[in-house]
């Protein structure tokens, strides 16, 4: 009997170790190159992140701005946890986002990807024309036609992520981030959690919320499910160098190693098309002001309007002949 119990517990221990062996980005048996062995979707054809190659992005004037509801300041307590891979904030279901096709997505959580290893301040997951920004924000949502995130995560149209970049040059402190960054000290160890109060997600996002890239992809961490509609904002958030350094050096993973470079390599685009609701002009400066970008898209909307008008005229003339 004793032997049986020992064998059984050994078996359970083994099963647990196998199941509990944490995936990583670059170390151990389950680094990102080996994710597909344990999580088959990670080897799929529609994976994220990707490089957003602006020259090849398709301008789609029918993509309207996202309607973000409940993103402004909210009272209450918002749990913020170190999950061993990143810092994650739980979001209230009063926060939601409506895409231009009318689909409503309910906010679930928000987390970050950053760099920091070998003094490189560069850790975004998506890149734009090959350039990796300092940090990437992911606000994860699920389709409101499903009852909960737990159900939606397995559905083909289940999820949507609103992503934004954080950049740093020699910016001063961004006070909208001070509260969040000071709370990192409370969750140094993996599994620890703390509460944020008076959360204002809109303040933590870029000023220009109108212009975005969009494509169909996956979760960027295991299980890499290919059911994510991505909205990557064109504008970025600005943080000071010391704020970025705090984000890169405050948290430890399950092995008490500093969480750094928690980003996945860009994945092949394959046959997907990336769309944007703004036009790309080759010598447009990266940090072009949002006002000017709005102005440019107004012009392109007008061009589109005239083009449609002319087409209708032509069609009418044809039908009269
Ligand atoms: C945005 O959504 C809110 C509530 O979901 C709605 O009241 C509002 O009219 C919408 N705004 C636009 C511009 O569609
Ligand atoms: C990490 O460090 C803490 C505090 O020193 C300790 O309690 C914990 O056991 C350590 N964990 C590992 C996996 O070494």
TrEMBL record:
Keywords: Disulfide bond, Glycoprotein, Lyase, Metal-binding, Secreted, Signal, Zinc. CDD domains: alpha_CA_VI. Transmembrane segments: none annotated. SUPFAM superfamilies: Carbonic anhydrase (SSF51069). SMART domains: Carb_anhydrase. It is an enzyme of class 4 (lyase). PROSITE patterns: ALPHA_CA_2 (PS51144). Residues 1-17 form the signal peptide. Its EC number is 4.2.1.1. Gene3D superfamilies: Alpha carbonic anhydrase. Its cofactor is Zn(2+). Residues 21-278 form the Alpha-carbonic anhydrase domain. It comes from the Eukaryota. It catalyses: hydrogencarbonate + H(+) = CO2 + H2O. InterPro entries: CA_dom, CA_dom_sf, Carbonic_anhydrase_a-class. It is found in: Secreted. Belongs to the alpha-carbonic anhydrase family. PANTHER family: CARBONIC ANHYDRASE, CARBONIC ANHYDRASE 6. Reversible hydration of carbon dioxide. Its role in saliva is unknown. This is Carbonic anhydrase 6. It comes from Galeopterus variegatus (Malayan flying lemur). The lineage of its organism: Eukaryota, Metazoa, Chordata, Craniata, Vertebrata. The gene is CA6.
């Amino acid at each position: 009997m004793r032997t049986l119990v020992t064998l059984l517990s050994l078996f359970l221990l083994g099963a647990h170790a196998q199941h509990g062996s944490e995936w990583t980005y670059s170390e151990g048996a389950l680094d990102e190159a080996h994710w597909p062995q344990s999580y088959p979707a990670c080897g799929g054809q529609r994976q994220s992140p990707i490089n957003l190659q602006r020259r090849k992005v398709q301008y789609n004037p029918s993509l309207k701005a996202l309607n973000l509801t409940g993103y402004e300041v909210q009272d209450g307590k918002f749990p913020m946890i170190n999950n061993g891979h990143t810092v994650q904030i739980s979001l209230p279901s009063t926060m939601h986002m409506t895409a231009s096709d009318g689909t409503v997505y309910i906010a679930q959580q928000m987390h970050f990807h950053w760099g920091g290893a070998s003094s490189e301040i560069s850790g975004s997951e998506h890149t734009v024309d090959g350039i990796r920004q300092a940090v990437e924000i992911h606000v994860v949502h699920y389709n409101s036609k499903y009852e909960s995130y737990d159900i939606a995560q397995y559905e083909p149209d289940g999820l949507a992520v609103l992503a934004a970049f954080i950049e740093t040059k020699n910016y001063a402190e961004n006070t909208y981030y001070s509260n969040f960054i000071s709370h990192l000290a409370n969750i140094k160890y993996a599994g620890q959690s703390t509460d944020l109060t008076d959360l204002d997600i809109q303040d933590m996002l870029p000023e220009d919320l109108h212009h975005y890239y969009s494509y169909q992809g996956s979760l960027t961490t295991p299980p890499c499910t290919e059911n994510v509609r991505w909205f990557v904002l064109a504008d970025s958030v600005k943080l000071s160098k010391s704020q970025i350094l705090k984000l890169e050096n405050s948290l430890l993973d399950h092995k008490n190693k500093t969480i750094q470079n928690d980003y996945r390599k860009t994945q092949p685009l394959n046959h997907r098309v990336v769309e944007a609701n703004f036009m790309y002009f080759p010598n447009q400066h990266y940090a072009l002001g949002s006002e000017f970008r709005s102005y440019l898209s107004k012009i392109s909307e007008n061009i589109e309007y005239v083009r449609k008008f002319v087409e209708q005229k032509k069609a009418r003339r044809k039908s009269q002949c």
